[in-house]
Design goal:
Layout lengths: L31 H11 L2 E3 L7 E2 L2 E2 L4 H11 L5 E3 L10 H7 L4 E6 L5 H13 L4 E6 L11 H14 L4 E3 L1 E3 H6 L4 H5 L4 E4 L13 H18 L4 E5 L13 H14 L6 E3 L38 H5 L5
Parallel strand pairs: 1-4, 4-5, 5-6, 6-7, 8-9, 9-10, 10-11
Antiparallel strand pairs: 2-3
Helix pairs in contact: 8-9
Length: about 325
Amino acid sequence: MRFVLVVLFLAFSALPGFAAESCDPRPPAAPALSKLQKAMAVGRFVAYQPTALKVYDGHLTGADEASIEADLKALRPWFDSLITYGALAGAERVPDVAAKLGFRAVILGVWDPSNKEELGNALAAAKRNPGLVVGLSLGNEMVLGKRGDWAGLEAALKKTRAKVPTLALTITEPFAEYLDDPAAKPALAETDFMLVNIHPIFETWFASAPAANWASFVVNVTKRLGEAYCRPVLIKETGVPTGPLPHGFDEKKQADFYAELARQLPPSPSRAFAWFVAFDAPWRVHDFNPVSGPHPEEAHWGLFTEDRRPKSVMKTLPPLP
């Protein structure tokens, strides 16, 4: 959940290295990719990290299965698919709990692909839940956060694919990292689908634009990515935080944004978005952030409060049948 100020609104017409005609699809990692695309089309994804899992001074607290189950029970009426961020300190048990509660799909996140224990945990969770785990995301904003580089991600994808050739693999970066940097292309060529972060609140025009424009920005960025990329595109992070109020954020703006985005970007097997993020996380204000300066909004991205109370946006979202 890290961010960067990016190029001007819709100014993507001449980005180096990513012309539509250069699109080069790789063979799909079936059947996991087909399951993912079905979940994109008919399910509803949410980005999720256990409420019990926090980071203090670089150290993870643990999340037990009871806490994870309480989280997922709160989410399940509205969401049937999950995207996680890590596979340590209990987070690797998310698919096991999700399977018991009838979730449709899980994309497992691996925060540090070079961590053998974490990667092993993720692969073991996928093996335990072959009908549920539809994808694996190696890293989250590693290039942006300078925790890794494109060559390292490419190598990690190839190494992981050798171990699990039928599991759909991807990485996660903000959209500008994909579109602005030609060095991204070899790593992206090794992925089966795109996970991307698109945050309109960090655009200079955000405060003066209506919610329809915020959603249109996300839709147009997604379209631009689709023109340059031949795999399914799933937006992992987008949205509007509900605070701090002095910064111009509130629950109404969050609800308005998602209402517009759902209207403008109906889900399909090739394009969909995840709701971001499941629960507030006040500890993130003090966590490492690759973008300099204070980030009080980090505490307020949740669709639910930290104690699992639904915010206004959830009161207008119809439960799943």
